Amino acid sequence: MPANAENCRINYIELNVRNIGKAKAFYGKAFGWTFTDYGPEYAEFSDGAMKGGLTTQAPPSPAGGPLVILYANKLEAARDSVLAAGGAICKEIFAFPGGRRFHFKDTDGYELAVWSKD
């Protein structure tokens, strides 16, 4: 395969959700993500570095699959934002070699994590 900056790198993440508006409200409020709508069943999100999609074309499947991990400069502030947006903490902040992190579930039950070097 030819080597380039995009070759064999994670490029996009897609989440099946029950309600596009509710998912956009959660991720927009918790992390400041922006969205581009592509009809009533699909919205693309951007976190400023990576893009992904929210879709109602299949039911949510929060169990299994890879764990999506976000980075935050201030871990406690990110935790507070998740809670304020309606998320639920499923693993409180804990230390690991290299930093600290917590896990949360979004409004559709997807488990994600947030980590920080602090």
3D architecture notes:
This protein has 118 residues and is of the alpha/beta class. It has one domain: 2,3-Dihydroxybiphenyl 1,2-Dioxygenase, domain 1, CATH 3.10.180. It has 2 helices and 8 strands; from the N terminus they run E-H-E-E-E-E-H-E-E-E. It has helices at residues 20-31, 75-84; strands at 12-16, 34-37, 42-46, 51-55, 68-71, 88-96, 99-105, 111-116. It has a 4-stranded mixed beta sheet, covered by helices on one side. Strand 6 (88-96) and strand 7 (99-105) form a beta hairpin. Helix 1 runs antiparallel to helix 2. The longest helix has 12 residues, at 20-31. The chain is globular, with a radius of gyration of 15 Å. The termini are far apart.
Summarize the structure.
This protein is an alpha/beta fold and 118 residues long. 19% of the residues lie in helices and 38% in strands. The protein has one domain: 2,3-Dihydroxybiphenyl 1,2-Dioxygenase, domain 1.
Beta-strand content estimate? 35-45%
Q: End-to-end span in angstroms?
A: 38 Å
The strand line-up of the biggest sheet is 1-4-3-2
Helix content: 10-25%
How many helices?
Answer: 2
Pattern of helices and strands: EHEEEEHEEE
The CATH topology corresponds to 2,3-Dihydroxybiphenyl 1,2-Dioxygenase, domain 1
Taken together, the total number of domains comes to 1
Instruction: Provide the CATH superfamily.
Output: 2,3-Dihydroxybiphenyl 1,2-Dioxygenase, domain 1
List the helices and strands and how they pair.
Layout: E1 12-16, H1 20-31, E2 34-37, E3 42-46, E4 51-55, E5 68-71, H2 75-84, E6 88-96, E7 99-105, E8 111-116
